[in-house]
Design a protein that fits this description.
single chain, alpha+beta, Aminopeptidase, 4-stranded antiparallel sheet, 25% helix, 29% strand
Length: 331
């Protein structure tokens, strides 16, 4: 059987940041075809494709993404840690899924599919496209770094752009203008005092003041100020939007951005369970079956220059994915 660490290192050696996934897609497709899988590549945009591998279908799909965030970091093995961009998010996970599927196929289990998508790190266009494929699976096991725990749920997200407007003037005659920045400075500190929803499993709704832009020059009274907020939501989005609308009423304009709902996931016995605060492709893959979220590695090192995965945890993930699939297929 394929060694998962060696396979992960091969994937890590391929630069596949979002938009440049083609070499990784080609590698995975060829790997699967060579082992007897029926492989479909679904073009998402020119030169970028999802990979769907199946045998008999009607069972469990193991899925994760092949794109990574930049910059590219080549693989290196130091002690018991495999470093490199994508080691835990999510090429190491992809390698574990490939090895688990190979193990199950060798046992004669043909009801396991594999779905590897592009674009998860920037808009999830791959998952949106994959949801149009004629999926037949009853369960979807999505892979993200959950520290080898089954996620009980995941917070959703809501972006919103907040704008305050003023009137430009020469700063030597400030009385002729109206600053757009000053009211924003008064408004922003109060956003964390809003009464926002709390969930027994997912915890509290949180907010991040992600960006702020205002003015053009120090000698011009600023006519426009903008800030983008990111809320991590734990319930239906309506109460959040109502609270933020009341907060901004008469003080700022709001432009609602991308929204991903909070989710609660299917669980099985025999695994440690914990919620996660980040989002995944799961809400966009609704046709692929009842969702579970599981993966080796920690989100706390993903996207950093020290991204890595523990080799023993990576090896254990192969058996974990196989065990999850067997349990779901027996249900």
């Amino acid at each position: 059987m394929t060694d998962v660490v060696a396979l992960a290192a091969e994937l890590l050696a391929i630069q596949s940041s979002t938009g440049s996934e083609a070499p990784a897609v080609d590698f995975v497709s060829r790997w699967l075809v060579a082992r007897g899988w029926n492989v479909t590549t679904q073009e998402v945009t020119k030169g970028r494709a999802n990979v769907w591998a199946s045998r008999a279908g009607q069972g469990v799909t193991l899925s994760t993404h092949l794109d990574t965030v930049p910059p590219y970091l080549p693989p290196r093995l130091e002690g018991n840690k495999l470093f490199g961009r994508g080691s835990c998010d999510a090429k190491g996970i992809a390698a574990a899924m490939l090895c688990a599927a190979e193990q199950l196929a060798a046992e004669g289990e043909e009801r396991v599919d594999l779905l590897f998508v592009v674009g998860e790190e920037k808009g999830s266009d791959g998952a949106r496209a994959a949801n149009h494929l004629p999926a037949t699976s009853r369960f979807l096991v999505n892979g993200e770094p959950t520290e080898s725990k089954l996620a009980s749920g995941a917070k959703g997200s809501q972006r919103v752009m907040v704008r305050t407007r003023g009137r430009a003037a020469h700063s030597a005659y400030a009385e002729l203008g109206v600053s757009a920045i000053e009211p924003m400075l008064e408004l922003l500190p109060t956003v964390k005092t809003l009464p926002l929803p709390v969930d027994d499993v997912l915890g509290r709704t949180t907010v991040n003041i992600g960006t702020i832009h205002g003015g053009t020059e120090a000698n011009i009274i600023p006519a426009l100020c903008e800030t983008e907020l990111m809320f991590r939501i734990v319930s239906d989005v309506a109460p959040l939007r109502e609270a933020v609308t009341r907060w901004a009423d008469g003080k700022a304009e709001l432009e609602w951005g991308s929204y991903i709902p909070a989710q609660h996931f299917h669980l099985i016995d025999g695994f440690e369970v914990a919620p996660v605060a980040y989002t995944s492709d799961i809400p966009l893959l609704s046709r692929w079956g009842t969702p579970l979220l599981f993966g080796p590695g920690s989100i706390n090192v993903a996207h950093t220059t020290e991204e890595h995965i523990d080799v023993d945890e990576l090896r254990a993930a192969v058996d974990a994915y196989a065990r999850i699939a067997r349990t779901l297929l027996a249900s």
